[in-house]
Design a protein that fits this description.
single chain; alpha+beta; Rossmann fold; four-stranded antiparallel beta sheet; 10 helices; globular; 6-blade_b-propeller_TolB-like
Length: 664
């Protein structure tokens, strides 16, 4: 099953002092450095106890995401009760959560063995200090022992898939050369493991055939390009499937129960007509029959799953950021009535081993992730987990509205519009304009969704601050054309979308265009730096988390298994054309243009955006006379997964906004 991972972001902001841009000086500002355990802080003042106390309840919310079913009919969930997220088991609606894994590092990538398997347990992945060199482990329900399944070296392993009878397990790994993600197949009983795909590139295992003779695989190039195929597990032959139009994006791929036909998600042309969105399709190669199951839905299908008894298929569409769940009877493909779900975003979803129930993760703007179960026959929805919200009154949480604002270019003779979620305080004082935080997603092939954010709630309810969460060009969810609008040399067009949002803010009578901050992580961190580079006269301050500061150094230093994937999106730094583009658009090359206050936060073990990207922008901006706050965690990677670290970063961010954004 293809699962969408709900965005996980540590968002934190705050309030108080009026801002005045200081003239740049050629003299580097003095640096006050503090090292406490794994934390290195530069120029960050002591966090006031009053601020920590006020933040405490918001920092103690938590969610519970579905990780699978056990053969006994319990659900596995991933949730945090201490420092990191671990696997728990729940056996009835709102039942006790039994913790199964206990590690200082977060656990993810859970895949439960099928009910028919001889072994009873689940596979999970875990790295060290956020380095993303994840190893796979087997948790056995009988012995409660854990066994490492992969090499334990500097390799990245994940995406475990079991055969229907549980005798085989496929996964992807970089163990052969550290660069290419190959496909491995493991005999669960003997432990014998062999590579079945070593073609080079980034491959993933999708599904075993019912007779265990074939394995569906896919080679990922970019969000707009992937190539599916099948490996004959008896003779090792790899057969790639023809792609209509030569290039397309593919999502999930799975065998039907007959083993002769497949279900898949793609934006391939249909009868020669280009398609903007990814649709769910059924194909029988022998007869050539093709059925477009979601032809009438003009939105992407995010994923699907098929019941073990092959009687039902469930899929989720992403409709302007809101998830819609559908269930089809098989093989008729007739829609099955299901109970209404709360409006929100669906994460993982999976049928129970007997095929009679469907579990799913549901998240909304006013409720953290929780696991729900649908009884298909009874058409009943039951809530299986009730996650905590730090003792806060959830009835006072603010739900965002979806707005669209005009940007600089046109589509079919009309101004293009950009969607954004707008969190507006419910009880804003009359006559007082609201300060604004613009929160920019990463990716860049990501999408901001109206999911629960304790930070947005804190801003709205405690500080009276509005938050705008745009999906600038290049975001997924709005069609193939929109996705491609920021590729390579068009990179700064997405930054212009932020400039257009600044224009929109200035026209809103309730918003204060003189008090705007920007916040973002990863590619969103680049967008923060680029926005400051272009609009420092209109933005007071920015927070950059694990962001790209120079595309040439980023592509040179990112881990080798990611380099070609990122070149497909950003361009090839080895060509003169892109060298010229990168020299023009990289913030580290133009620090003199950043006059707003800046806070940079980074994980030392980040394999995606190396910590050197953070250190070079900090050094460059300081060298231009601007003071910069800098935070480095030696035990984190691409984001902050440990609660103590995330809490400190959140409090520091609040203090930063307090000193450099807000004021009377």
């Amino acid at each position: 099953m293809l699962r969408r991972t709900l965005p996980v972001a540590v968002l934190t902001f705050a309030c108080a002092q009026a801002f005045a841009a200081e003239p740049a000086s050629t003299k580097p500002a003095a640096v006050q450095r503090e090292e406490v355990g794994n934390r290195v802080s530069e120029n960050i003042p002591a966090i006031p106890a009053e601020l920590l106390e006020k933040l405490s309840r918001y920092q103690n919310t938590r969610g519970a995401g579905l990780a699978g079913w056990t053969r006994e009919g319990c659900v596995l969930i991933n949730t945090r009760f201490a420092e990191t997220s671990q696997v728990h088991r729940v056996c009835k609606p709102l039942g006790a959560r039994e913790q199964l894994t206990f590690y200082p590092e977060p656990v993810g990538g859970v895949a439960a063995a099928p009910a028919k398997a001889k072994a009873n347990g689940f596979v999970f992945s875990k790295d060290k200090g956020g380095d993303e060199f994840s190893q796979l482990y087997w948790f056995d329900f009988g012995t409660r022992n854990t066994t490492m399944l992969t090499d334990g070296k500097r390799s990245q392993n994940g995406g475990a898939v079991f055969s229907p009878d549980g005798t085989l397990m496929a996964y992807a790994g970089t163990g052969r050369n550290g660069t290419d993600r190959d496909i491995y197949v493991r005999n669960v009983a003997t432990g014998e493991t062999k590579t079945v795909v070593t073609e080079g590139g980034s491959w993933g295992a999708m599904d075993f055939s019912p007779d265990n003779k074939e394995l569906l695989v896919s080679r990922y190039v970019s969000a707009a390009e992937s190539y599916p195929g099948a490996v004959n597990l008896e003779d090792g032959k790899l057969e790639m499937f023809p792609v209509d139009g030569g290039k397309a994006s593919f999502g999930g791929f799975a065998f039907a129960g007959d083993g002769k036909s497949v279900y898949f998600v793609s934006d391939e042309p249909i009868q020669g007509q280009p398609q903007e969105f990814q649709t769910l399709r059924w194909h029988e190669p022998a007869s050539g029959k093709l059925e477009i199951l979601t032809r009438a839905i003009p939105w992407d299908v995010d994923g699907f799953t098929i019941a073990d008894d092959d009687k039902h298929l469930a899929y989720v569409t992403n409709e302007d950021g809101i998830s819609k769940l559908h269930v089809l009877a098989l093989p008729s493909h007739k829609e099955v009535a299901i109970p209404d779900l709360p409006i929100g975003v669906i994460g993982g979803f999976e049928f129970s081993p007997d095929g009679k129930r469907l579990a799913l993760t549901l998240n909304s703007a006013t409720s953290p992730s929780d696991t729900y179960v649908i009884d298909l026959a009874g058409k009943q929805l039951e809530r299986w987990t009730q996650s905590e919200v730090g003792g806060l009154d959830s009835s006072k949480f603010v739900a965002p509205t979806l707005v669209r604002y005009s940007t600089f270019d046109q589509v079919d003779g009309k101004q293009r519009t950009i969607p954004a979620f707008y969190y507006r305080p419910a009880n804003a004082p009359k006559g007082r304009k609201l300060p604004v935080i613009i929160n920019i997603h990463g990716g860049p092939e990501g999408q901001s969704l109206p999911t629960f954010s304790p930070t947005a709630q804190f801003l709205a309810n405690e500080l009276g601050v509005a938050m705008l969460v745009p999906n600038v060009r290049g975001s997924t969810g709005y069609g193939k054309t929109y996705l491609s609008l920021d590729n390579a040399a068009l990179r700064e067009d997405s930054v212009k979308d932020i400039g257009a949002l600044l224009d929109w803010i200035a026209k809103q009578p309730e918003l204060d265009a003189s008090r705007i901050g920007v916040y973002g992580g990863s590619y969103g961190g680049y967008m923060v730096l680029a926005s400051l580079m272009h609009y420092s006269d209109r933005i007071r301050a920015g927070v950059d988390i694990v962001g790209i500061s120079d595309f040439t150094t980023f592509l040179t230093n990112t881990e080798s298994y990611r380099r070609d994937l990122r070149r497909a999106e950003y361009g090839d730094e080895r060509t003169p054309e892109m060298q010229e583009v990168f020299a023009r658009i990289s913030p580290a090359r133009h620090p003199e243009r950043i006059a707003s206050r800046l806070f940079v936060a980074q994980g030392k073990n980040d394999p995606r955006v190396p910590y050197t990207e953070a250190e070079q922008i900090v050094k460059a901006v300081r060298g231009n006379g601007q003071p910069v706050w800098y935070l480095l965690f030696n035990d984190e990677g691409h984001g902050f997964q440990k609660k103590a670290n995330a809490d400190y970063f959140g409090a520091a961010t609040m203090l930063f906004w307090q000193q450099h954004l807000l004021g009377e």
